[in-house]
Amino acid sequence: MGMKISIFILFLPLYLLCGEFRVATYNVENLFDLKKSGSEYTEYIPYTGYGWNEESFKVKLENISRVICDLKPDIIALQEIESDEALHSLQKAAKACGASLPYRAIADKKDTTVKCALLSKFMIVDKKEIDPDPKSKLRTILEVTVEIENSRLTLFINHWKSRSGPESLRLKSAKALLKALSQVENDYILLGDLNSNWNESEEILHSKRLNDTGGITGIGHILKTYKEGKPIFKRELREPYHTNLWLELPQKRRWSHNFYGRKSALDHIILPKRLFDKEGFSYVDRSFKRFTPYYLFKRDGSIFRWQRAKRGHGKHIGEGFSDHLPIYADFTTSPFEFKKGKGSRKRVSAQELKPLELSVAKLYDLPPGPCRVTLSKVAVIYKKGSVAILKEPGGRAITVYKDIAALKKGRLYSVEVLRLYNYRGLHEITKLKVLKDIGETDISALLLNNPEKIDIDSDLSEVVAQIEGVYKRGYLYYGDKEKIKLYFKRRDERPKNGSKVLLKNLRVGIYKNRPELVAD
Questions:
Q1: 458 and 383 within one domain
Q2: In angstroms, how far is the first alpha carbon of the chain from the final one?
Q3: Distance (Å, rounded) from C-alpha 162 to C-alpha 166?
């Protein structure tokens, strides 16, 4: 009997053993399928001059599924999914990169261009749709109930009217949602893109265009995340009010959308009092976060949204992710507990923190922005123009952009990394301090020499000492039927099409989420 029980426990899913699970929400920015239905946005009609085709669809799926796989949600609410076909394709792409979410649901009762959806590890036992106004094109709210450890949790996935419309339209969605909540007996979570800020009750007072409701807001007044003009924090929460998890973060970090420099918190996870008690499901205190891996940002710190030519009005380029960041929170089947320590901790600047000693490989896991990280021994294997490349002996390489005056090729250094950026998927150091010049070193052993294959996950910023192949229409064909994009800053240096070439001293960059060789 004991042996049977041990085997059973061994193969239980991890979330059942620990009782914790992760819920996320992500507006993926227009995930359209390749079937012409007549309701698409013009630029997403498949196989037109805008370039929405198999290639661009595949890149979009790969990029969004990468986010899902790295985020590791057990349940993820999605917005701007065109159809169940598009959702199923994303489900398969996520599984291919390691995120198995076998259950799915989509709000498909109403003919709207983009819809709310959900992917889940847990079995879906019920699905409904809430229509705020059957006579309008307002998107329906998707109500999904899942079963976790023999208990039921209901999720309400929202995508309210955009801010191109007045608050009265969002008020309709809020009122319909509130009515549905009165009929739910089990624990629930409100989440999605509400196109409202966490402090919308204050924001709306500054906009005559938005404020056609006398200052009444859907998120603040109808869902009751505000009381007497102030947001409700978890310690003050009472029925029938809700708390917005954005309050868990400092105000400067309360944003998930950046529209031409205007940062706003349009995406939300909103909780009732019952998720802060001793029964049923509970929120894991202070677990709410934005998901901010380096690759979701451009070099200037803006969100790396899905790219189109002509400043977003032309052809699909086949790069980027979404104009929103994912947000997430962890939940548990155990009673709620406040984390020890004061709820409002003093913020510590990057300069006050003791530097961490990390490997170059670990830098790729850090988000863009200020940091303090020590690299104890790195070699300068490349320096030209405004670019240098550091490589850890036996480890990975990383690009340094502009702040390279103190670096000399062929020398070993101990350095402190002070700022990281992401440029179209390329992680870069943009500010550093040399702590110690260790001395000269032979860098030849640190370069790639006639590689059989160049991999984007391990070879970014590496330097190729030499490589042989055939140049055809912008690509180098090399190794055993491999090909890689080849970029020359000077057009007159490009080889003739079809010619055999031996190229030297190239750095590995990134192009449309694939590796490319750059000849500076």
A1: no
A2: 68
A3: 9
Task: State the Cα–Cα distance between residues 265 and 440, nearest whole angstrom.
Answer: 50
Domain boundary among 268, 302, 323: 323
Q: Can you read off the two tokens belonging to residue 172?
A: 């309709």
Residues 6+ apart with CB under 8 A from 226: 201, 217, 220, 232
Quote the CA–CA distance of 107 and 158 in Å, as a whole number: 10
Which residues contact residue 344 at a Cβ distance below 8 angstroms, ignoring those fewer than 6 apart? Answer: none
Q: Which is it for strands 397-401 and 426-440: parallel, antiparallel or unpaired?
A: parallel
DSSP class of 249? S
How many Å apart are CA 270 and CA 181, to the nearest integer?
13
CB contact at 8 A, 214 and 168 = no
Do residues 368 and 417 make contact, with C-beta atoms less than 8 angstroms apart? no
Question: Is the peptide bond between 250 and the residue preceding it cis, with omega within 30 degrees of 0?
Answer: no
Does 234 lie in the same domain as 186? yes
From the number of C-beta atoms within 10 Å of its C-beta (0-12, 13-18, 19+), residue 409 rates as middle
How wide is the angle at C-alpha 287 spanned by C-alphas 284 and 288, nearest 5°? Answer: 120
Phi, psi of 414 (to 5 degrees): -105, 125
- Token pair listed for 384: 């030209």
Considering all CA atoms of the chain, what is the largest pairwise distance in Å, rounded to the nearest integer? 76
Give 357's strand partners.
Answer: 374
Is there a single domain that holds both residue 382 and residue 402?
Answer: yes
The one-letter code for the residue type at 262 is R
Helix/strand/coil for 205: helix
Residue 353 Cα distances to 77, 180, 250, 291, 476, angstroms: 35, 47, 18, 22, 45
Range of the domain at 162: 125-279
Identify the H or E element spanning 58: helix 54-71
* Identity of the residue numbered 360: V
Total number of residues shown for the chain: 520
Helix (H) or strand (E) holding 426: strand 426-440
Rounded mean pLDDT for each run of 10 residues along the chain, 520 residues in total: 31 45 97 94 96 96 95 96 97 92 96 96 96 95 95 97 96 98 96 97 91 96 95 95 97 91 93 95 96 90 93 92 97 91 45 71 82 93 96 96 96 93 86 95 95 90 95 93 90 90 94 88
Q: Return the SS3 of 194.
A: coil
Peptide bond into 231 cis (omega under 30): no
Domain identity same for 163 and 271: yes
Among 256, 238, 141, residue whose Cα is nearest residue 191: 141
Structurally, the chain folds into a number of domains equal to 4
pLDDT of residue 17: 35
Distance, in Å, from the CA atom of 461 to the CA atom of 397, rounded to the nearest integer, reads 6
